[in-house]
Amino acid sequence: MSEQTATWYNLYDARPQVEVPAESPLAWSYHHSGRPAVGEKSRVVLRERDMAGHLILRGGAIVLDEAVRQVLGFGLPGRPNTLTRDESGERSVQWLSPDEWLVIVPGGEEFALEKRLREALGDAHTAIVNVSGGQTLIELSGEKARELLMKSTPYDVHPEAFPVGKGVTTVFAKANLILRRPTEERWELVLRRSFADYLYRWILDAGAEYAIGVEG
Amino acid sequence: MSQSLKQPNRLKEGGRIDRARRLSFTYNGKTYQGHAGDTLASALLANGVDVVNRSFKYSRPRGIVAAGAEEPNALVQLGSNEAAQVPNVRATQQALFDGLVARSTNGWPNVQRDAMSLVGKLGGRFMPPGFYYKTFMAPASMWMTYEKFIRKGAGLGRSPMERDPDSYDHLNQHCDLLVIGAGPAGLAAALTAARAGARVILCDEQEELGGSLLDSRELLDDRPAAQWAEQAVAELAECANVTLLPRTTANGYHDHHFVTLHERRTEHLGETAPTVDGVRSTRSRMHRVRAGQVLLATGAHERPLVYAGNDVPGNLVAGAVSTYIRRYGVVPGNRLVLSVSNDHAYRAALDWDEAGREVVAIVDARRHPDGELVEQARARGIRIIEGSAVIEAKGDKRVSGARVATIDAEAFTVTGQAETLACDTIASSGGYSPVIHLASHTGARPTWNEEILGFVPSLVKGVHAAGSARGVHDLAGGLADGMAKAREALTALGRSADAIELPRADVIREGQACALYQVPHEKPTLRAPKQFVDLQNDVTAAAIELATREGFESIEHVKRYTAMGFGTDQGKLGNINGMAIAARCLGKSIPEVGTTVFRPNYTPVTFGAIVGRHCRDLFDPERYTALHQWHVEHGAEFEDVGQWKRPWYFPRTVDGKKESMDEAVARECLAVREKVGILDASTLGKIDIQGPDAREFLGRIYTNKWAKLAPGRARYGLMCKDDGMLMDDGTTSCLAENHFLMTTTTGGAAGVMEWLELWHQTEWPELDVTFTSVTDQWATMTVTGPEARKLLGEITDIDLDRDAFKFMDWREGKVADVPARVFRISFTGELAYEINVQANYAMHVWKTLFEHGEKYGLTPYGTETMHVLRAEKGFIIAGQDTDGSVTPEDLGMQWAIGYDKPNSWVGKRALSRPDTRRTDRKQLVGLRPKDPSVVLEEGAQIVFDPDHAIPMPMVGHVTSSYYSPTLKSGFALAVVKGGHQRMGETVYLPMVDGKTHAAEIVGTIFVDPKGERQNV
Question: Quick one: closest CA in B to A19, which residue?
């Protein structure tokens, strides 16, 4: 970040430097609603990837694409409602709206990433907002995962309409979430913290007939 | 309990029932036997049960008339126990299961001996259409009393009083082609589309897919038609791109090819859903289908003829007779008279004859019927009476005879001497009405087709009809039509489908049908014995004629005056006949009279299926903060704020006694004023604003000035709608030169976010600024009270010195080792620090505060205490003290309006209108009740002169009112006309109980008017 731009934005690492008890948005849900065990009959399995780093980027696509490419080694998704990932699959960038993307990286990387993006962006005006505490990511897999989604969202999740690499913001039960399909077998749901318990209870209820299990 | 093991009307062989599986069921307290594959109706007929209900208005005995969704009489109440009660089930649509318990919905004390029937007998003349309106409306105040008894007498079933043990859900479906109806046209269409690789959903309301093929006499490829249906269904079941939904009724056609299908998943298995592997199945499911194209293959309903006594049990529609014989092996009587206007209905007599029972006669309204089926009947030696009709059915609880006479349908007269034929069953057919209900749901009015003597659907874009649903009634034609329409539909989607090889059907030559709806009687309609049009709503031909005589000429008015086609029936059996009668009386043609509108739902849908999973604790989202668990564990009572659950107050239990809300709030208030309290303020809306034009944007969206707010500072702002009325308020902090953090009210967060985006995207796209919601990212803890500095000082590295960290400053540092932004913002009037940390770490920070807080008397408080404290300081709550008609000036907040800002801002122009400049607008003031023990009622109306005659001029109302433990008095905020100029005046609040409170108008700040306490 140049001297000139250093005063433009409040760069701020929200993650403590020392070990401090932390709770994912689903902490209360696990405590209160429990975690049904994964068994042989589980045809849907839920797993939370908690404490990941989540950043929202807002700005012009061309400049941002260059900066993201420079820092992450892969660019912004070229088309609406899609996502790109690195080879490990742990870092992803998803299109959210014409000037808005969601970056998810392993927990702890988000502040370094924010700083490096700021440097790469120079004096280009782009918003980078850390939302790691405001949302969490859960994965659904299993043969009935798609049917569970059909119970919950009006969006068409048929493979023809929702191929691997697609991601959308949509209605889920009576809330919103981000729904994406990074691989053939796996769906990812990004839940807002305050709605997480409602959505967790909904998913357990809808998944009961598939003997849904929760990993971890 | 009595038992019947005999099924006198069950044929020795035939039908699609499983004779090896006997099922036992109870109807009106008596136990009967049936078979797997029966409907409740076919089992009742097999057992010779004639009377299944009492009619709605006249309480006449009624029997089963039809075999499907159009059945008007056999409505039953299901359920062996309270929780399992289901009203309004058509016995013709309820599959029989072992242990089924059903009752008639009408009839008290029972259907055989009904108390209300006396009314029906005296009947008619005393209950003409409009009877209820005319008789019971005066005096109007008594209607509520009359209504109770009328409804009890009428009875339409009842809802359960206990919790439903079952679960229901919704499934969102998408497809290229939705085919509704799995008869010949529907199956051909589904096969065509499936083989072309399209995503297909095929649904049918019956237990088995196949529709009319299941009871057809015809052959396909030289085999019984039902066999071809089975083969087609088997092929479709193998296709990954096809979803087959039997027992699934398309109930509503909504906008944009959104169709709701009600699938009854376990209703055929038992009265509650079975448990498999410890998991209870879903009982009913609503499929919410968004289809590319929709094909209606819904078939046709046979129209009964309207003749005198046509409601006596033993009167059926002709097709139903065939269905019961061929599909269920049940022949619903011994001696049949068939009255028809067409060839197709002759099947009933042929099937009856083959079942070995006597066909007394076929009475054909046509002079010289000559089709193939007619010839077959003649060849069997069945008596055919030409040019005639059954003009009257004789009998009471069962048909005992049919009066038959020659008629002139066009002149509507009986031309010959009536002959009485002894019989126990009369079947009739006046033709076939395409099932156009779903097409009508789209708003498209159907059109009359003289050739088929029926209305055919008008279709909006993307909807197709095939087969009988559009009047193509013959088998070969229906199959071909299904295929053709499926190909059209796929072409419309930009796809294509090849023609498929259809099975070969023999063409049966049918003679021309004649138009006959109401059959003439020797007496004029108004004097003749009742001729029923709508059996479910007890509407007679005479009622329709009377309605037209009384001036109801529009068919919509006739419908409402007579109740024809009302309710769950939706005119399936009677509407066309009713229209034909109205047309005759008005001297118009049927197309001139037109149809009424059919509405969703096609047949009743249980509330469970409509609600799905959105019930009980999943009824509405509950939003929780990161500290929710602590609140629960510390006994918080919660308050709903929007969808949030916020702690309302934290009652303590002292000596085994739990504090009341007033006690808890008083304690919490004093703790904040005297020591230190803590509030979970995480629900406040928070918006991160970045960009070089962020500051300019704030200046345009807020009423006050933002140009000079330096990093490290925070400011209170007011947001108006463009009409100048206050919309939301909150503080916004400058985080860096181009970076701000805005807070909004809890309830207003989403609305403010949209508001910002709206103005940015539509009015000021040139401003380089973006908004991101961070409400969930930051947990906010307000530590407030005289001891707040000492407490926070123990666990933070931030310099809290009063000069280094002033009121309305914010600082960055660590609190309990967690990075935090701390804001010196006060909503209590006391020294206050709002601590913001990333929500994942909030619980740790909160608990650490309590570890250190005990010695300072740290007290958690909820929204109620927050309200009292802020009101004592005159801080408003947008949405409580304002209601969309209050300007910032009305609130006395001139100090927060920047009329001299260089650019205009939202609401500015509206604030210079004469109306917003009036000096007698309702303005926010404080009220002090003269009696300090009085807490005024929020919403109470204010008057200047309590002795004024009623109606008194009302000059304002109380917006917030509480008891203040600090003042030891009630106090309130209120809006009063010209209130700012009335300080010290007394106003009055007349209450409902007759008391009138007096209060003094005072300033809005009750505690610490100079604001010294928050500035320490």
Answer: B817
**CA B306 and chain centroid, separation:** 35
Distance from C-alpha of B71 to C-alpha of B983, rounded to nearest angstrom? 73
pLDDT for position B131: 55
Same domain, B46 and B143: yes
First-last CA distance in chain B? 85
Cis peptide before A130 (omega within 30 of 0): no
Residue A153 lies in a domain: yes
Model pLDDT, residue A12: 93
- B709 contacts B734 by C-beta, under 8 angstroms: yes
B135 touches chain A (CB under 8 A): no
Closest chain B residue to the Cα of A147, Cα to Cα = B171
As for the ipTM of the complex, it is 0.98
Q: What is the DSSP string of B757-790?
A: HHHHHHT-TTS--EEEE-TTTEEEEEEESTTHHH
Do residues B374 and B228 share a domain? no
Residue B961 domain flag: yes
| A174-188, B48-62, B411-425, B466-480: least confidently modelled range | B48-62
**Residue A144 structural domain:** 27-214
What proportions of chain B, in percent to the nearest 5, are helix, strand and coil? 25, 30, 45
pTM attached to this predicted model:
0.93
Give the separation between CA B107 and CA B126, rounded to whole angstroms: 20
Provide, as residue numbers in chain A, all residues whose Cβ is less than 8 Å from the Cβ of B171: 147, 150-151
Which amino acid makes up residue B442? Answer: T
For residue A162, what is the nearest residue in chain B, using CA coordinates? B174
**Contact assignment for A16 to B817 by CB distance below 8 Å:** yes
Tell me the chain A residues in contact with residue B772 when contact means C-beta distances shorter than 8 Å.
56, 58, 127, 129, 131
Contacts of B199 in chain A (CB under 8 A): 158, 160
Closest residue by Cα to residue B842 from B678, B622, B720: B678
Nearest-CA neighbor of B340 among B361, B355, B311? B361
| Distance between CA atoms of residues A182 and A84, nearest Å | 9
